[in-house]
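Section 3.1 - Work completed
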Amino acid sequence: MRIDVDGAGFLTAEHALATGNRRCAEHLDDLTDALAGLGGMAGDDATSADFAAAYDTASAEVVAGLGDCVTALACLGRLTATSRAEHERAEAGAVLRGVVVPGAVVAPDGEVSPAGGPGDLGWVAAMPSPPPTALGGDWSAVPTGLGWVIDLIQGFAWPSADVGELRTAGATWVDCARAVADLTSDCGAAVRGLEGEVSPEIPLAVDACQEVSDQLAAIAEEAYGLGRACEQYADQVESHRAEVVALVVQLLAETVVIQGAGMLLNSVTGGGGTVGATALTGTRVAAITPDILAVAARLRAANEVLAASVRNASVRVTIARGRLEKFRYARSGGLSDEAGQIRVIAPRPWDRGPGWLRTHEVRGSHTIERHVGKTVEDLLARLRSQPGISFASSFADVPAAERAIAQALRMRGDDVADWLSAGSGKLTLHATLDDVTGVTVSRTAHHTTSNVRVVLVRDHRMDDGWRVLTAFPDV
């Protein structure tokens, strides 16, 4: 085993990661500060609810994902600093005739205090709050002089989104996305520094930096998509508002003609014509109502399509966060043959911290995507779209899913061990717990359940050699 470490490469990596850590935290602060004043921008009418809900989930997930990136960059920086210190301590321990390796100071008690040791660079932590909800209305956008006519249209509500704030939010997300994407250059600088050292832990450290870089790029891409979705939503609202205004203006123009005819009839009939003109105007309002409701229906459909794309973005960010989760639990190892070691580990499945399930949402695993946080309506929709399944189910949220799955794994630990040692293919575990695991929905009824099903697949890239392919409350 060859080791050739002078520390300069480690220091380069430390400083690059510290720069990325601080810049990421600053971009996150800028984002949350800008979004804090943009609550209630999506509207609160029937056309906006779906988009507002999807945006709220996705924006909170992206903000949390950026917080995870801050943590991951700090983690990698500390690991790199610790590894450098271990190398310097090992070198300083090899003292011959009072000569000590330069760059390290041996204290009287024999401890080594390397120059620029771990912690010197001031690593930044982040605990971001989710952005305010997008649900809310801007009724000042109703055109002056037309509101009273719009109020006569039964079943129609003016699209109440704040278009200006939507466009501001869109620009904010796009600016943030570009800034975050640039952070990959800090990871690249760290990699170049590490590649200048020769030690067994360097390939793992390089891979870890590249992993963080990849997830920074992935989250930046979804932040950009969220910005574009806000802009597209604003465009749709403006376009459909213009259609409604055109219909109302046409109605008013025709009404003026009718009222003019009413005045003429009134002079001849002594007032009877006014009643007829007013009734005829009411008839016209009723006549254009289907056209205006059709405009609203098209807007709602367009917004639902846009909301679906935003929900998909949220799932992709959740997957990226899962890949960053291990850095929250990372620690540096001890010396081995004078080599600094970097290990990125996570607790075992039955002793994990919050968020561990996200690390399994890779390579086709889909517990969170399909079986967490779904409403009864969501599950019924799945049954309609998949006639081949007899029921659909959902955990209430990610923590509930993690608790149920972890408990099932503890209960069936021997089965998992036997499968790993001798089995092949997938392993399906069934367990009945003491507490409710979630809700199941059939085509005729729905109810809560205490059962859970967990399906495992072999995966040598996971620390335990397996991955949760799917898990859900069982009938």
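Second construct:
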Amino acid sequence: MIGFVYLLNPTGGLIEIIPDIIPFVGNLDEGAAMLLIWYGLVEFFEGRKFR
């Protein structure tokens, strides 16, 4: 949920963990947010198989 809200960019780019202007590392925070979303979806769908 946190990753999804971060990708929605509710602050309009005023508050960022890593500024996007920095070459090569500027998009790492968006990548980390996407990984959080992916992990959450996998846990949600795959976790139900074992319960």
